[in-house]
Design brief:
By secondary structure, the protein is of the alpha+beta class. It has one domain. It is 28% helix and 32% strand. It has a three-stranded antiparallel β-sheet with strand order 1-3-2. It is elongated. The two termini are 18 Å apart.
Length: 68
């Protein structure tokens, strides 16, 4: 995975943030599924953070992607 600093040296890369919001179980399950399919490692996501909605949490993934 490239850091945001790398996007400055590669002009075709732009930052992208993914936000998952749901119960702790569904967010954690989705994060693990995204690792299984090779999209992002579990450790790339932020820790589960409280959501403004009761019973929900959120996690954020930031990465640079190639834009064509």
């Amino acid at each position: 995975m490239l850091s945001q600093g790398s996007s400055q040296t590669e002009p075709n890369r732009e930052p992208l943030k993914h936000l998952l919001i749901g119960t702790a179980r569904t967010v954690t399950s989705t994060i693990h599924y995204l690792q299984v399919i090779g999209y992002a490692d579990v450790g790339d996501w932020s820790p589960l953070l409280p959501s403004p909605n009761p019973g929900e949490v959120m996690s954020i993934l930031s990465r640079s992607i190639l834009v064509q």
